[in-house]
Amino acid sequence: MKINPNIINNPPHTNNKNTKNQEKSKEIPIEKESQYIPNQGEEKKVTYDNPKVNQTEVKRLKEESDRAHSGLRRMVEELLKRQGMTFNDLELGKEVIVDEIARSEAQALIGEGGDLSPEKVSDRIVEFAKAISGGDKGKFEILKSAIEEGFKQAAEVLGGELPEISQKTYDLVMEKLNYWKEEEQ
């Protein structure tokens, strides 16, 4: 088969004088300087090594967190009822007096072993971070940064500084995250 260089500049589909001659010789157009150039750079991964988010663990942690939140909500609701109030009254700015029953229940929730204790809350935060990352320690900095941002936003909502219990929770989270990062894989 013969290749006609005129076809490169005047493809067969254009109306020109060479069209009849090109059809007769069944010439195939080719591009000048066509050549294969292999990828010389390092290939970038387009998949995630450990794509499996531990959905079972995420679900368990969410249920555990929901239980703790429900317990706190129930406690506050009962406190309000004892004072003839509802959550709507809180929005109106009415003053709530924390009675001894509520104080005792709150202490149990935040005290050692309680669902809202720094130890248990920090466990849930770290376990959640590990679960959503699929256990990939390569995501450590992203996870740590997100957690730091969450505590920073909480501090802003609370007037710029975390309460002592929240600061203790933060410290435990960072300690546990760092331990996870350093432990053997």
Distance from N terminus to C terminus (CA atoms, Å) equals: 62 Å
* Number of helices, counting only DSSP H or I runs of 4 residues or more: 8
Q: Main sheet?
A: none
**Approximately what portion of the residues adopt beta-strand conformation?**
under 5%
Structural class: mainly alpha
Q: How many strand units? A: 0
Low-confidence stretches: 1-14, 16-25
Oligomer: single chain
Tell me what you see in this structure:
It contains eight helices and no strands. The protein has a domain at 55-177. The longest helix is centred in the middle third of the chain and has 28 residues, at 55-82. The model is unreliable at 1-14 and 16-25 (pLDDT under 50). The chain is mainly α and 185 residues long.
Would you spell out the secondary-structure blueprint of this structure?
Layout: H1 6-9, H2 19-25, H3 55-82, H4 87-91, H5 100-110, H6 118-132, H7 140-157, H8 164-182
Helix pairs in contact: 3-5, 3-6, 6-8, 7-8
